[in-house]
Amino acid sequence: MSYGxxxxxxxxxxxxxxxWVVLLAAIVCTIYIALLALxxxxxxxxxxxxxxxxxxxxxxxxxxxxxxxxxxPRVLGALLAGSALAVAGTIMQAVLQNPLASPNIIGINxxxxxxxxxxxxxxxxxxxxxxxxxxxxxxxxxxxxFALAMGRGSTKLSLVLTGIAMSSILGAGMNVIMLLFxxxxxxxxxxxxxxxxxxxxxxxxxxxxxxxxxxxxxxLLRREMNIIALGSNAAKALGMAVTTTxxxxxxxxxxxxxxxxxxxGLIGFVGLIVPHALRFLIGSDHRVLIPAxxxxxxxxxxFCDFISRIVFSPYEVAVGILLSLSGGPFxxxxxxxxxxxxxx
Length: 344
Fold this sequence. Notes:
Helices cover 77% and strands 0% of the residues. It has helices at residues 3-11, 16-39, 47-56, 62-96, 108-122, 129-149, 156-180, 188-193, 201-220, 222-228, 232-237, 242-264, 270-282, 286-310, 319-343.
């Protein structure tokens, strides 16, 4: 069987029409969840009142102020962070050919977080630098992990172990920063667990550009992800510049992860849960998997954030805690399943 036939056979496992149906369902569900999150909260306000005040320019209207200054930034932040982290996880799993790869598992989140904390200490009062520093931290961490784990005799497990080691080192680095610079600790608790309660329009305006560009690049490289998922030898046989393509994909995942971390903190497991759920439903064709990840990830994080502030009202649980409670067992399940597959 030729490599081209192998690619078609692999993608043939996915029902292409079913994939687009799932994508449409994800879009509809995400819009519904976003409207739901805007409508409900600790204060009872109406979206109709908000739009009426928006049209009339009545910025003192309670519905306008609650939704525009509190709920809208939070929902936008959840949509952006969810889509970015889900697509980043999908990219990493394709590039590294490892189902356990995701930004938080292999330490990319902590790399971005370390650079964000360092920038906030060294360059205070410059929010425009946070997305850029988060991207650089995520990219450098990804490249180091990739270089360490892809040596001769390496296995898929070596990538995860290397990532866990890097994550531990970078986590210690963040603790050192907060110990030496107590001011950096202010608000860091939400940042470290991942939360959206402090998201504002100002904190989103710089990250939006990075995320939009990253998502656009991921959409443009969907075909390349299908090919590179077959392995280096197959990709080279099909004429792909494997090293260049891998770097572009890793850089794209770093842009998405870094931008999300810059305002949402160290939210984890989105890039693990969403891609696996979608592959179970629609297969491994990245032509559909990437756009589906954009909307499924956005809806998933928005729903989790909505649950975290509604179910425990009047108290609020950071969405990162809720995702860790669900993602931890899911990761253990994947490890066990991967071990059984390897033994078979």
